[in-house]
Design a protein that fits this description.
Blueprint: E1 2-6, H1 11-24, E2 27-34, H2 44-51, E3 55-60, H3 62-75, H4 87-106, E4 110-112, H5 121-132, E5 137-139, H6 141-144, H7 150-159, E6 173-177, E7 180-184, E8 214-221, E9 224-228, E10 231-232, H8 235-248, E11 253-259, E12 265-271, H9 273-289, H10 292-310, H11 317-329, E13 335-342, E14 345-352, H12 360-363, H13 373-383, H14 385-402
Parallel strand pairs: 1-2, 1-4, 2-3, 4-5
Antiparallel strand pairs: 6-7, 7-12, 8-9, 8-13, 9-10, 11-12, 13-14
Helix pairs in contact: 1-7, 4-5, 8-9, 10-11
Length: 403
């Protein structure tokens, strides 16, 4: 049997690699996607082979991740539970697709991942496998083995000589990529406990940044970020620049009690410095160029888009169809927004676009006001007619009862 495992080199997948070999007497191939993780991937191929992998593929997918997954979500302003910018959920369909491609190339019978039965990732990998490779067996080692806790996995790794970073007194589950970090478990399971500063990887303490405020200008073309401070940049360079600048000012932390796909609430602490800046700038530019109906409809559909990503339905027809709406709606979203960053805050300084729908001659209350005020009074009369008729009817009912 040949199995391709989505491999990060972390605790779960390191243990899973060795466990799959022993459990299925299989040849296990490790697939590792470089999506801009905070942890170094140096030596990951060697580590996988020392753990027993017969083959290892490491791919640099940072550019693909941003252009094909993050940017479409940004066009939709997609955020789960209105806050989470979905760094981990957006990476799963990409990892799944590339893992399946690797499985085809080596003639694998099965693919495997390191998600748990309580988490969301099992659904995301299952969704990708169902859409792209329903003929391959999908294995979930963490549901099959008798290791019931992270401490058990740490002991298993020690017994089998598998090097891992997790230790019993700091058992956080950490997932990072170029778009953000996700931290769970440990003391964070107590929702009354503040997150310890040591867990943060991408942002400084907003109260102890040691620097003053800083202005930064982000440019967009049809909704896609293309420049920082007037310098056109590749997606990877742009996000890395914003991560460094915003992270230095403590921007991008979220402590969220979220609603998991499997039905219960869980606490996650997230960082997305660049994402927080880009979402704020993008929304501000939209506010200038989109008409009211399009803007409000986009807000509703964007919430749905975020839920589709979170729920592991990236490959669904609905998500593809929504891309069509957002691509059309974003055509005029070209221009720049200047923001001031400081001590965890973002303030809007300037908005500039050739497609502005703002006209000061109508918005102003000065002498050059061009709005027809009498027309406005007539509009208000007609617009409130349903409430007026209802009010008159209520008054007649009250008079009838009184008589």
């Amino acid at each position: 049997m040949k199995i391709v495992l989505a491999y990060s080199g972390g605790l779960d997948t390191s243990v899973a690699l060795r466990w799959l070999i022993d459990r299925y007497d299989a040849e296990v191939y490790a697939y590792c996607a470089d999506i801009g993780q905070q942890e170094s991937l140096d030596g990951i191929e060697r580590k996988a082979k020392e753990t027993g992998a017969v083959g290892v593929l490491v791919e640099d997918l940072r550019e693909t991740f941003l252009t094909d997954y993050v940017w479409p979500a940004l066009l939709a302003n997609a955020a789960y539970d209105r806050q989470y910018l979905l760094a981990a959920p957006m990476s799963r369909p990409l990892i799944c697709a590339r893992m399946i491609s690797y499985a085809r190339s080596v003639g694998a019978d099965a693919i495997a991942h390191g998600a748990t039965g309580k988490g969301n990732d099992q659904v995301r990998f299952a969704g990708g496998a169902a859409a792209l490779a329903p003929d391959l067996t999908l294995l979930t080692p963490l549901l099959e083995w008798d290791l019931t806790s992270r401490q058990d996995e740490i002991r298993y790794a020690a017994d089998h000589g598998i090097p891992v970073d997790a230790v019993a007194d700091k058992p956080y589950s950490v997932d990072t990529n170029i778009w953000g970090s996700s931290i769970e478990c440990g003391v964070l399971d107590d929702i009354a406990a503040p997150p310890p500063e040591e867990i943060y990887l991408m942002t400084r303490d907003p109260d102890r940044t040691g620097v003053g405020s800083q202005e930064i200008t982000v440019g967009f073309t049809a909704g896609v970020p293309t420049s920082v401070d007037g310098e056109r940049m590749s997606p990877v360079a742009l996000v890395e620049r914003l991560n460094a600048v915003a992270g230095r000012h403590g921007v991008g932390r979220i402590d969220l009690l979220e609603n998991r796909v499997v039905g219960f609430k869980t606490r996650g602490v997230y960082e997305s410095p660049a994402g927080t800046v880009l979402h704020r700038a993008h929304r501000e530019l939209e506010s200038v160029v989109l008409d009211r109906d399009t803007l409000h409809t986009a807000e509703t559909l964007g919430q749905r888009y975020g839920q589709l990503i979170y729920d592991g339905l990236w490959f669904s027809p609905l998500r593809t169809a929504l891309d069509g709406f957002f691509a059309a709606a974003q055509e005029p979203v070209t221009g720049s927004v200047t923001l001031r960053l400081g001590h965890g805050r973002i303030d809007v300084v300037r908005r500039s676009t050739p497609n502005s729908l703002y006209d000061r001659h109508f918005a102003s209350y000065e002498s050059d006001d061009q709005f027809e005020h009498l027309a406005g009074a007539g509009f208000s009369y007609a617009f409130t007619m349903p409430m007026r008729i209802r009010g008159l009817a209520r008054r007649r009912d009250q008079d009838t009862v009184g008589s």
